[in-house]
Design goal:
There is one protein chain. This protein is of the alpha+beta class. The chain has 3 domains: 241 residues, Aldehyde Ferredoxin Oxidoreductase,  A, domain 1, CATH 3.60.9; 209 residues, Orthogonal Bundle (Aldehyde Ferredoxin Oxidoreductase Protein, subunit A, domain 2), CATH 1.10.569.10; 191 residues, no CATH class. It is 43% helix and 15% strand. Strands 1, 2, 3, 4, 5, 6 and 7 form a 7-stranded mixed sheet that branches. A 6-stranded mixed sheet has the order 9-8-17-12-13-16. It starts with a strand and ends with a helix.
Length: 677
């Protein structure tokens, strides 16, 4: 796939112009491009896409494979998608497990899409028997809507349609080659929050329960609205890449590298590193849902994060009754005990996809659209998550909308007539009963359909996400704001004037601090206390190390071995010696520089809910880390003046971040918010 000449990596890039329906293959040689994010940042900088709107046809959408794709090493076939996000409005990335392997079989490292097709189209990329082809197949708008509406299956119906119609493109000698479909749902057509969905395909058939998502960032909306492409099909039969000086396709060579570093071969090392995602015996559970729900305890966010206001014992009681006693119990009996486990499509000991029937279950979707949305029953959650994913949303982001609307209804800021439903929620931890889970799920389902298809005036306010909706709601219903305001109870991290992202579902400050990449695990997310300057430094260090996975196309579930070994693998398999920490630190700086040109940087917390999450965390963290003069100082500062303390805390975070990456002019930030130390 690439050769090494003079320390440079040579990449094969497929450039596609959707407006012209044309393509060209180019060879990209650079001593600074190791992975997809490297290439994407350079491409976006060169094209000055920061000067255009996020849904402009000049906003290149780039996806690709890392330098270790096609090797025998598990977790190295993750597809990386990069673009100017219509949600965060920064240059952002999202990744999909296993989806790079069929791209590797096309002989291409990266694909860059620019321009806008005249009609909604399905893009088919294949390289079979030495012949490369790229074709656009128009799909009428009415046909597309009919496909989406079939059984209300949305993106899953589109997957079935595309596979049925184009799978024979990948039939060779009566055997189906490995291929993938990237598809969007109705949400991508009408909102900025559309995700990209993919499913494993074996022998020309979709494997149920193998969902993969480039969910965060709204890249489904970029694909559909900026380029008028609703699905991308790709695959081939190329497997002629040579790793050198050591052949990473040779298990013996791979085992030697792992044994030298870990004292165990590749399989044993990978199994040890991915235990959480497979099965943890002491919890009798596994996967992100099973292990996180087994361990979160009183830290679990519930009821749109209002649980942070409850006493520890009350939160613990809710957790024991509704999570351990029911929600997790259902999951363990139906998914873990039955061993309904799959991989993302590549051979991997993690078998991280835990599923029931035809849908996988991960922690964050089943938390954001579960307990945090007042849903504590698997049947109710399956209905809600299933609908949200069928419509093609980012489940975490949409869960943030559902929980916000439910709390607004509970507090009288919105009525059931406003929302267009027949029942009121019981979004109160003190009076909640399990049957209310189904009521909340039904309200969420109605919202998912209404916003995806823009059916009501209320739903249209959420077309651009929660930050925009809060402003519109506050303007429309200003007379209802008194003790509570819409902005008080929304929970998001703001970027620039209009950008935002919903936080990861953990009650820790690391997921709210002013890092350039948020809404992902590019931060320190332990619940132990660090002074904000130290937390900022520790978190940006985590951002750099997460790029070891994100830029290289390695699944972060393998980070236990990959972060220690990635430099060696690049040297041994690609012939390039690199200080990868410094490389990724500079890459993070490049991302920041792009976003500065776009005028979009992390902003101070504008919602009271976020400031309350930080304030209440401090008291809870004292029980974890123990008391100290530093934590007591911050608790007292927040008690005295929450807003002023939050600004000081945010400022100190930025000071810590700036030790590693130049994150901006702190004095300018302080002047902007008119605060003093």
């Amino acid at each position: 796939m690439y050769n090494i000449e003079g320390g440079c990596m040579i990449k094969n890039v497929l450039e596609i112009n959707a407006e012209k329906g044309s393509f060209k293959r180019i060879t990209h040689e650079s001593d600074s491009v190791i992975g997809v994010v490297d290439y994407a940042v350079d491409a976006h900088m060169s094209a000055k896409t920061y000067e255009y709107g996020v849904l402009d046809s000049r906003n290149n959408l780039i996806f690709g494979a890392g330098p270790l794709a096609g090797s025998k090493i598990p977790g190295t076939n993750r597809l990386i998608v990069v673009g100017h996000s219509p949600v965060v409005e920064t240059l952002f990335l999202s990744t999909i497990g296993g989806a790079a392997l069929p791209l590797y079989k096309t002989g291409m490292d990266f694909v860059k899409i620019e321009g806008k097709s005249k009609k909604p189209s399905i893009l088919v990329i294949k390289n079979v028997s030495g012949k490369m082809s790229v074709k656009f197949y128009p799909i009428g708008q009415d046909t597309l809507m009919d496909v989406f509406s079939k059984d209300d299956s949305g993106v899953y119906s589109l997957h079935e349609y595309v596979v049925g119609k184009y799978k024979d493109e990948f039939l060779k000698n009566k055997i189906y080659l490995d291929f993938r479909v990237l598809a969007v749902g109705p949400a991508a057509i009408s909102t900025n929050q559309g995700a990209i969905s993919t499913l494993v395909i074996r022998n020309g058939n979709i494997v149920k329960g193998s969902d993969g998502w480039a969910g965060r960032g709204g890249f489904g909306s970029v694909l559909a609205r900026a380029h008028n492409i609703v699905a991308v099909v790709y695959g081939g039969d190329r497997d002629d890449h040579v790793f050198e000086p050591k052949d990473l396709k040779d298990m013996k060579a791979v085992d030697e590298i792992f044994s030298e570093h870990f004292g165990a071969g590749m399989s044993d090392s990978a199994r040890k590193a991915t235990e959480k995602y497979r099965y943890v015996e002491k919890y009798n559970s596994g996967g992100t849902f099973g292990v996180n729900m087994s361990t979160m305890g009183a830290w679990l966010p519930m009821f749109n994060w209002t649980s942070v206001y409850l006493p520890h014992d009350k939160r613990k009681d809710l957790y024991e009754k509704f999570i351990i006693g029911h929600y997790l119990k259902q999951f363990n009996e139906e998914t873990i005990d039955t061993k309904n486990w799959r991989t993302c499509g590549e051979p991997c000991p993690a078998v991280c996809k835990k599923y029931k029937d035809d849908r996988k279950k991960d922690y964050e979707p089943y938390e954001a659209l579960g307990p945090n949305a007042g849903v504590f029953d698997q049947r109710a959650a399956e209905k809600l998550v299933g609908t949200v994913e069928s419509m093609g949303y980012d489940a975490i982001g949409f869960g943030n909308i559902v929980s916000f609307v439910l709390e607004c209804m509970q507090k009288g800021l919105l009525t059931k007539e406003d929302v267009g439903v027949d029942v009121d929620p019981n979004f109160d931890a003190e009076t909640f009963e399990m049957k209310d889970s189904f009521k909340h799920a039904d309200i969420g389902v109605k919202l998912a359909f209404d916003i995806a298809y823009q059916r009501t005036e209320f739903s249209k306010m959420f077309r651009h996400g929660i930050r925009s909706a809060v402003r519109k709601l506050s303007e429309k219903y200003s007379e209802r704001e008194g003790e509570f305001k819409f902005l008080d109870i929304a929970n998001y991290i703001p970027f620039g004037v209009d950008g935002y992202i919903a936080p990861c579902q953990y009650w820790v400050p690391g997921f709210f601090i002013p890092l350039q990449i948020q809404g992902k695990f590019y931060s320190y997310y332990g619940n132990d206390f660090y002074p904000p300057k130290d937390l900022g430094a520790k978190s940006v260090d985590r951002s750099v190390r997460e790029l070891f996975s994100g830029n290289t196309g390695i699944c972060r579930f393998h980070r236990g071995w990959s972060e220690k070994l990635v430099e060696t693998l690049i040297a041994e398999g690609c012939g390039v010696k690199v200080d990868y920490y410094e490389h990724c630190r500079k890459l993070l700086q490049k991302l920041r520089d792009y976003d500065t040109k776009a005028g979009v940087v992390p902003m101070f917390w504008e919602t009271k809910r976020v400031r309350d999450v930080i304030r209440t965390y401090l008291s809870e963290a004292r029980d974890v880390s123990g008391t100290s003069p530093e934590i007591e100082k911050w608790i007292k500062r927040f008690e005295k003046d929450e807003l002023k303390a939050a600004k000081a805390y945010w400022h100190d975070l930025l000071v810590g971040i700036n030790k590693t990456v130049d994150w901006g002019d702190i004095e300018h930030v302080k002047m902007h918010y008119a605060w003093s130390d």
